[in-house]
Design a protein that fits this description.
Pfam families: TniQ, TnsD. The chain has about 475 residues and is an all-alpha fold. The protein has four domains: about 180 residues, no CATH class; about 100 residues; about 60 residues; about 50 residues. It is about 45% helix and about 5% strand. The protein has a three-stranded antiparallel sheet. It is globular. About 35% of the residues are buried.
Length: about 475
């Protein structure tokens, strides 16, 4: 016989199920969290999970007709966000595990979350304005779903920086503890830090993530762009080849390096990256955040539009789609001019050396020395062609660039050195100020961490 739970609180708009359970425990008067868990799930060993909880059918049954399994999963967990681009069979498997129960961590493992470079937040977050509005409307604050999504640093409604609490997002240390927002000392928390000039980009991520959360069905798509999108943007040749050099350069120009690195979505034009794989439509899972970045870059307003399937989805009917969108050839073939590439190599090397020198010596915030950035800063009147496409004909230039192009770690070290010099001129610096000025977040790579410690040790002004 199933014992029904009385007095379970009404779940508010955008409230995490975790938050509702925390509020129930607080009002129940139970002294032990496991007592509350047993009342709600009929099992004392169900773990507290912020984003993708399980055993939800058992909870729904004990709540009587108050909430269905679908309502709890679709409206009060992060399932709609993570399932937006999953194949339907995998989305239904995740849904089933959340409904029926699973081994601890199975849902996260199925979604590739532990292995992802995009990490979960360290602590639960909230919006100061939402906090006050919830107090006025519902007489108590609560944890919002839309504030707990990876990569979301601002409230999607109020466009202000979220506040990081002291309540751990991952519950390994306190597997059975549900903590309500009312238990938090509001003013002991701290705002998430990001560059204010990037507010619009962070707001875009928050808004699109929020829209994905509001999905109320299980219809999913596997990708966010199509060959048609690529062709219209000039990233697909007449022969169907993808212009990756142009695409990567434009992507890095569209978003700043600091923004992409902060979101763990940086793209290095020198190697195969997640963006290459996504554009090609490889049969891989990609984090929803990366789908959001690509969709906004490509100018796609609706992430779940059926016209935005990935590469290969439109390549049907014997390639007839190509006949409709590609321009007809005129039949006129122009001659290719003959160039002295040896002489060009020497001239271009001089120009490239000058660009690299300027990039590394600029007093303003450093810019990464990448092939795309060098190419962007070249004098187009002197070099009227795409450098990346001709490097194989320019051995001296290529050799120089191979030595000068920075890895992510090298660029982060240079930013730390710049920040240390810049801040030491003001006479008072703390370690956290150095990190903030350099636009970095911990954990750092080993070499970057070593440089950070060296800079602190070498300057007695640093605390």
């Amino acid at each position: 016989m199933i014992l029904l739970v009385a007095h379970f609180p009404s779940l508010n708009p955008d409230e995490l199920l975790y938050s509702g359970i925390a509020r129930y425990h607080q009002m129940s008067g139970n002294t032990a969290q496991k007592q509350t868990i047993n009342e709600l799930f009929g099992d004392r060993l169900v773990c507290a999970t912020v984003d993708l909880p399980s055993h939800i059918r058992h909870l729904s049954e004990r709540l009587g007709s108050l909430y269905t399994v679908e309502e709890l999963i679709m409206k009060h967990t992060l399932f709609p966000y993570y399932s937006a681009f999953l194949p339907q069979d995998k989305a239904r498997k995740v849904y089933g595990l959340m409904s029926e129960g699973e081994s601890h961590g199975e849902v996260h493992a199925l979604l590739g979350i532990p292995a992802s470079l995009i990490k979960l937040p360290n602590y639960l977050r909230f919006c100061g304005i939402c906090y006050e509005e919830d107090m006025a409307t519902y007489h108590e604050p609560y944890w919002h779903r839309s504030h707990q999504i990876p990569g979301v640093c601002v409230c999607p409604i109020h466009k202000v920086a979220l506040i990081e609490s002291t309540v751990s997002y991952m519950t390994r240390e306190k597997k059975f503890q549900f903590t309500p927002l009312t238990d938090l000392e509001k003013y002991s928390a701290s705002n998430l830090c990001f560059q204010i000039n990037l507010l619009n980009q962070y707001a875009m991520v928050a808004e699109r993530s929020y829209e994905m959360l509001k999905s109320v069905n299980l219809v999913t798509n596997c990708s966010s762009i199509s060959e048609m999108n690529l062709y219209k943007k000039g990233y697909l040749t007449e022969r169907g080849r993808i212009r990756f050099l142009k695409l990567i350069q434009d992507f890095n120009d569209y978003y700043t390096q600091e923004f992409l690195e902060h979101l763990q979505c940086a793209v290095d034009g020198q190697s195969e990256t997640w963006l290459h794989k996504m554009i090609r439509g490889n049969d891989l899972m990609f984090h929803p955040l990366r789908h959001i970045l690509v969709a906004d870059f490509m100018g796609l307003s609706n992430l779940n539009s059926t016209e935005n399937f990935g590469i290969g989805m439109l390549d049907i009917n014997g390639g007839k789609w190509q006949q409709n969108i590609r321009p007809k050839k005129t039949g006129v073939r122009t001659g290719t001019p003959i160039h002295d590439w040896k002489e060009r190599d020497s001239l271009i090397l001089f120009e490239v050396e000058d660009v690299v020198k300027n990039l590394k010596s600029r007093k303003a915030k450093p810019q990464r020395v990448s092939l795309a950035m060098v190419s962007k800063n070249l004098n187009k009147a002197k070099i009227p062609f795409v450098l990346e496409k001709c490097l194989h004909k320019l051995p001296k230039t290529k050799h120089f660039l191979d030595k000068e192009i920075e890895t992510t770690e090298q660029f982060q070290i240079r930013r730390l050195e710049w920040a240390a010099m810049h801040l030491s001129e003001r006479g008072f610096v703390q370690g956290w100020r150095l990190m903030k000025a350099a636009g970095l977040n911990k954990p750092l790579k080993e070499a970057v961490e070593m440089k950070y410690n060296q800079l602190l040790d070498s300057n007695q002004k640093f605390s």
